[in-house]
Every structure is written in C-alpha cells, then in structure tokens.
C-alpha cells in the first residue's frame, strides 16, 4: 500500500471506523497492505481475511472456524474457501493475464461452466483477485463478516472493485445491510471516500 493511501486511512480513522475484508488468507493481505500483522491491525479497526472466517477487532481475534489445507500449487482450501488459479512465475505474467482475461473473459466463462456443472451442491463460484476463482459454501461470501459489525453501526459503506454479478464483492456490495460503492483502484477509492465523507459533513 502506498504511503499516501496509508496516511489517508490514518486521517479518516479520526472520524470513521475502518474495516478490510478479503478472500485471501491473512498472510496475503499483510503482504498486500502492510509489513507485518501488527502494522495491519494498527491500520484498521476490523480486519477480516478468508471472507471473515478469520477476523480481528483491533488486535483481538475472533474464534476461527476451520483449519487450512493446501491441495496443490494452484488450488488451496482455506478455512471456508477453495481458491483456483493459474500458476504464474512473475508479476508481469499476472498483469498480462489480467489484460487477456478482461478481453476474453476467461474466468467469467469458467465460473459459468462451474455453476452449470455443480448446480445443486450449495456452492458459490466467483471471480476473485487478479487471476483466481473462489469457491465456497453459500453464505460464506464476504457478507459473513457482517455479523461482527452490523449491530455496532447505523450504516456500513462497502467499497470494492469486483462488484458485478459473479465477482467476489457482489454479495456484500448488494447486501441490504451495506451501502455499496464500485471502485476501480486505490486512487478512485480515495476520491469516492473523500466525496462521501464531505457529503456526510465528516471532512
């Protein structure tokens, strides 16, 4: 996470509570956003990994639900989520796939095929991250984390980029307990949050 975004988050925490929820495990979220677990937990009021199956309020950890199992280099079962992805050797190849996938909709077609072939199994299939598809039981999407925060706040705003149907943000984005906002990148997120806080007279 760039320093200007870190500073922005620190500034707005003076007037609102912040939470992060991701489908990845905690170590991946730390890799993306902070240098250590302690730093990550210091940046947010709530941290939820694996869609909320692992969660923290401050530095206090909620009870975890399941154990982790590594299946292969390209498929891993987290506490409540199966992550399927192509194995890439470099960030450059990942970035190239993002462009290719955007044009050819590889993962979108894959999700459709999974939904067709595994209908009736009580599973959700969604596009996650840059290169993967997530599979989890119905109800174990990102809305799972809302049980920990919904009673503490009169309104919950969610900002995410995979908010379209089939994206791993769609369930929480469209949940009646949240007010959803679609963003494209950290800069856009910062802009939209600033506009919202100004509208609420909090900035």
TrEMBL record:
The keyword Nucleus does not apply. One of its GO terms (cellular component) is cytosol. GO terms for molecular function: metal ion binding; phosphomannomutase activity. It catalyses: alpha-D-mannose 1-phosphate = D-mannose 6-phosphate. Alpha-D-mannose 1-phosphate binds at residues 94, 132, 134. GO terms for biological process: GDP-mannose biosynthetic process; mannose metabolic process; protein N-linked glycosylation. This is Phosphomannomutase. Its EC number is 5.4.2.8. Pfam families: PMM. Belongs to the eukaryotic PMM family. Pathway: Nucleotide-sugar biosynthesis; GDP-alpha-D-mannose biosynthesis; alpha-D-mannose 1-phosphate from D-fructose 6-phosphate: step 2/2. Keywords: Cytoplasm, Isomerase, Magnesium, Metal-binding. InterPro entries: HAD-like_sf, HAD_sf, PMM. The keyword Manganese does not apply. Involved in the synthesis of the GDP-mannose and dolichol-phosphate-mannose required for a number of critical mannosyl transfer reactions. Its main location: cytoplasm. It is an enzyme of class 5 (isomerase). Homodimer.
């Amino acid at each position: 996470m760039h320093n200007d975004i870190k500073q922005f988050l620190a500034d707005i925490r003076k007037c609102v509570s912040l939470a992060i929820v991701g489908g990845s495990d905690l170590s991946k979220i730390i890799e993306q956003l902070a240098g250590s677990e302690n730093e990550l937990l210091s940046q947010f009021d709530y941290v939820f990994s694996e869609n909320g199956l692992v969660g923290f309020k401050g530095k206090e950890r909620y009870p975890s639900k399941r154990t982790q199992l590594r299946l292969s280099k390209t498929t891993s079962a987290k506490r409540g989520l199966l992550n399927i992805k192509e194995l890439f050797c470099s960030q450059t190849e990942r970035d190239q796939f993002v462009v290719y996938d955007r044009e050819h909709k590889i993962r979108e077609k894959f999700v459709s095929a999974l939904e067709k072939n595994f209908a009736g199994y009580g599973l959700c299939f969604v596009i996650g991250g840059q290169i993967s598809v997530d599979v989890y039981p119905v109800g174990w999407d990102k809305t799972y984390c809302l049980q920990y925060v919904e009673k503490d706040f009169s309104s919950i705003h969610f900002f995410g980029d995979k908010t379209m149907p089939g994206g791993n943000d769609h369930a929480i984005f469209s949940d009646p307990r949240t007010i959803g906002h679609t963003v494209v990148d950290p800069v856009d997120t910062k802009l939209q949050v600033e506009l919202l806080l100004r509208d609420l007279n909090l900035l």
